[in-house]
Structures are given as structure tokens and as C-alpha cells.
Amino acid sequence: MTSSGALVTIDSVTKTFPPQDGTGRFKALDGVSFTLEAGSCTLIGGANGSGKSVLMGIIAGLDDADSGAVSVTFGGKKARTGLVFQEAETQILGETPLEDVMFGLKNCGYNRADAEKKAREVLAQSGLAGKELASARFLSGGEKRRLAVAGILALDMPLVIFDEPYANLDYAGVMQVNALIRMLKETGRTVIILTHELEKSLALCGRFIVLYRGRKVFDGTPEEGLLQPLESWDIRNPLTAYTKAEDLVW
Predict the structure, then answer these.
(1) Parallel, antiparallel or unpaired: strands 207-212 and 77-78
(2) For residue range 16-67, what is the model confidence (pLDDT) as tens digits?
(3) Do 192 and 7 meet the contact criterion of CB atoms below 8 Å apart?
(4) Strand, helix or coil at 217?
(5) Per-position b or e across 171-182, b if 16+ CB within 10 A of its CB
(6) pLDDT tens across 191-206, in order?
(7) How far apart are CA 138 and CA 13, in angstroms?
(8) What is the reported pLDDT for 229?
């Protein structure tokens, strides 16, 4: 997959919801704008409730903005978005990884033989070789995210969004997710990582955007971002030195 032109354009996107108390409306996104080039890797940081997941749903076409425009294109044509949800098991539709990937392929018109061949190829590419017939429900958290990415690769989606990909993962799971991100970058995909855990993937990204209470408050390089008042936006700055046990507390 080769990169060609701007892939994601967000122009003054606003989204509101009625609050639980029934008074007024809650503004989840407030005039957010940015453009991401094809083949780029971007971390969008923000605390819970900052608007990250709402923005993901709008980019992917799962929801509509109240105002503003969203365009996702590849090579000048409208492109599909692959999502890796925080709870990756909610995306599993097959009993085994092989069945799960084949499900999407058969829905796109592949016959069974071609679907199985393609599914085995992308499962191997995603690091699940040897697990094709395992129980998909009993995969580890990192493996479930690998399975979600395999389905995205099978359908050749140029944009992949990870929503809080490190939630509930141990060290090995985090390393598996980062290996996936590196692989997606190498194959020319555009990657968006939505997370507040900057220390786990910021070095993989060339762009750093911060959302705070629905507004974009920073957009620049990771190096520039680490100089910003991140704590005032409810994000912990990871540039903290640990030299003794007493340091290990938030």
C-alpha cells in the first residue's frame, strides 16, 4: 500500500449530546480541525471525556457531527476506516480467528477457499500464525487486538484507529500492540492512536494532538507536546525520573 495525498481532514467538527440531568446540551467536540497525511502515525491524547472516542466514531462514520465536515480519502477516493476498540473482544464474530477473519471476507464476496487463503495470510502477518483454530474468546488481550488488525488487513483498509489500545494489558500485551503499530506503519497505513498513556507509544508517532473538554488545545510534534502544560489538561507528563521506590506513585 502506497501513500498518496491527505487521508483524513477534520474541519470545524462539533458534536453535542443531551446531559443526563436533562438541562442544556453537553458539547463533546467543539470546532475540532486538523488534517492527517496518508501514512502518518498520530497520537491523539486526552483524559476520559475529552472527546477522543466521539471523534473516532465520527471519523469512522459510526456517528454524524452536528456541524463541520469529515473526509477520509485514499488516492483521491473515499476510504474505509478500520477500528480496534478498547474492548477488542466485542469485535469478535467467529469462534476461531480463522472464522472471524473469513466472516468479513465472505461478506465482501470472497468464496470460501479464497477467503480462507487470505485469512491465513493476514493472521500470519498479524502474528497469529499457529492460532488460526484456537478459541477466539480465550485469546489474550494483545492477541484479540492482533485479530482485529488481521480483519482490517484482510479488507485492505488504509486507516486504522486504536481506541485506548493499552487498556487492561500487561507488558507483553503492550509490546504486541506496538509491534502491530510498527507493522501497520511499514505497510503504509495511516494510524491514529487514542490514549492518555503517552509513555507507551508516543515515540512511534510523528504527530501529537491533545483534546481537552472537546477542544483541540495542542497540535504539533511529540517533542513540542512534552513541553506543554499536560497536567492542566488532565494528562500525566511521562517525562518523570524514577530513581527510588518512593518515586513510584501518582
Answers:
(1) unpaired
(2) 988 766 666 789 999 999 999 999 999 999 999 999 999 999 999 999 999 9
(3) no
(4) strand
(5) eebbebbbebbe
(6) 999 999 999 999 999 9
(7) 39
(8) 95
Q: What angle do CA 49, 52, 54 make, to 5 degrees?
A: 85
Task: State the Cα–Cα distance between residues 15 and 17, nearest whole angstrom.
Answer: 7
Grid coordinates of 195: 490514549
The owner of cell 497520537 is: 43
Q: Which amino acid is at 49?
A: G
Q: Please compute, for residue 140, the number of CA atoms within 13 A of its CA located in the half-sphere on the CB side.
A: 15
User: What is the β-pairing status of strands 6-17 and 81-84?
Assistant: unpaired
The C-alpha cell of 166 is what? 493499552
Cell of 56: 473516532
pLDDT digits (tens, 9 = 90+) for 112-140: 999 999 999 999 999 999 999 999 999 99
How many C-beta neighbours within 10 Å does residue 238 have? 12
Q: How confident is the model at residue 249 (pLDDT cuts 50, 70, 90)?
A: confident
Four-point Cα dihedral 82, 85, 90, 93, nearest 10: 20
Model pTM score: 0.91
pLDDT value of position 6: 60
Helix ranges (DSSP H) in the chain: 52-59, 97-107, 112-125, 141-154, 171-186, 222-225
Give every CB contact of residue 68 below 8 A, 6+ residues apart in sequence: 10, 11, 12, 13, 14, 31, 32, 33
Contacts from 21-24 at CB under 8 Å and sequence distance 24+? none
